[in-house]
Amino acid sequence: MPMKPLTILTGINRSSEPSSGSLILVNDLYRAMPDTHTVYLGRRPVDREWRAAFGHLIPLSTTKRPQGPGFDNYVDELTLEVGALIEQLRPNAIHAQNVGFALSLAFSRTAGTIPIVSIAHGPEVMAAEHKATEHAAMLEVAAASAAIVTPTSVLADHIDRLTGRRFTDRIAVIPWGIRLADARVREQQSAGTRPLSLMHAGRLDDNKSTITAVEALALTDQPHCLTVIGKGPLREHLERRAIDLGLRDRIHFEQHLPRAELWRRLPTFDAFVFTTRGLEAFGLVLIEAQAHGLPVAYSDLPGVREILGDAGIPYSPGAPCSLAAALDKMGRDFHLRKALAKASLTNARRYDITTTGSQLRELTLRLIPY
After folding, report:
1. Is 301 helix (H, G, I), strand (E, B) or coil?
2. What's the CA gap between 149 and 212, in Å, rounded?
């Protein structure tokens, strides 16, 4: 056990602001990690909240070139910058966010005897499944890591398979969490059979499959209303599709909201709709919705099923007909909605960020030679 606070070097090679689940998670995580001094490497602009979350925040200066023929040179330049910082900072441990992106590669090439804990977030796993360059990067980072942390056993198995089962004994499952103490629950569910006020929040891309929710509303027996909150490349397509289906008055699109505002809005809805159809690392927004007492209709993916258990209504991923039936089932049955709301709250209590922080800190300490 160290006599002084554990010093960890970590970072995400993106703007230091709340623009994704991974960034929000990391911001919460190191606030919740006791007796830890965290140095964070990120990109400009730097959100004020990010500076408050870490002991020290250092913006990276290497020009970012994440794809294309210049990638190898970019990683070499980033490695030089990171190596100089490691020599200066001499952390007890390095937490490499993402198992195989450029910053984790730079960490793996410069850590020396400093133990690396790689933390999987999902996008790098999906990339490694389809691209040789990303797969090679994952193998290199995994080989340099003393431990590989994933939030679910499903994601752990994906990584284990992609790395040829060579690092099975290094993989540890530590579920993600949220700041449960900040969540507020609506006072009671509205009774009776009626159309539902639904929320969907997340990045509007192909894997998140928001189109499933849009098309499901055209197939429901009841005129449920849906609010879609988020940004992404498919937003215009989704808006046009809603108009084509005659749903202009039932589907409302809003921009990405700061988490505090999203959490303020959550209890005003009847239920949450989760539509990812491919690999999902964890789905923090599911726990956020449940912590606010919302029943959840979710695409029945193995990783999501592991997180939610029986606390939600599953439907076939990417199938609007299946989702429409699930929504109508909730709309018709008040007692079901009430039971699901209760189950949601019970399930969400399993995922407190303070538990995540304590478990990750304990794992890190076991790897440090003193």
Report:
1. coil
2. 31
Whole-angstrom Cα distance, residue 120 to residue 292?
Answer: 26
Report the interhelical angle of 353-367 vs 21-31 (nearest 10°): 70
pLDDT tens across 283-332, in order? 899 999 999 999 999 999 989 999 998 889 999 999 999 999 999 999 99
**What is the spatial distance between Cα 179 and Cα 183, in angstroms, rounded to a whole number?**
7
- Residue 352 has what DSSP assignment? B
Let me know the angle formed at the C-alpha of 172 by 168 and 174, rounded to the nearest 5 degrees. 155
Strands, E assignment, the chain: 6-16, 36-46, 56-59, 93-97, 116-119, 147-150, 171-173, 197-201, 225-229, 251-254, 271-274, 296-299, 313-315
Tokens of 116: 């690396």
Nearest CA among 237, 162, 157, 159 for reference residue 204: 237
Beta bridge pairs of residue 298: 274, 314
Q: Domains along the chain?
A: 6-177+352-367 (3.40.50.2000), 181-348 (3.40.50.2000)
- Choose among 266, 267, 202, 195: nearest CA to 238: 202
C-alpha R_g of the chain: 21
- Establish how many alpha carbons lie within 13 A of residue 179's alpha carbon, considering only the half-sphere containing its beta carbon: 14
Is the bond preceding 302 in cis, omega lying within 30 degrees of 0? Answer: no
pLDDT band at 18 (very low <50, low <70, confident <90, very high): confident
pLDDT per residue over 241-271, tens digit each?
Answer: 999 999 999 999 999 898 999 999 999 999 9
Task: Give 6-30 as a DSSP string.
Answer: EEEEEEEEEEESS-SHHHHHHHHHH
Q: Which residues pair with 37 in a beta bridge?
A: 7
Tokens of 237: 């397509």
Helices (H) and strands (E) in the chain, counts: 15, 13
Residue with tokens 């790395």: 163
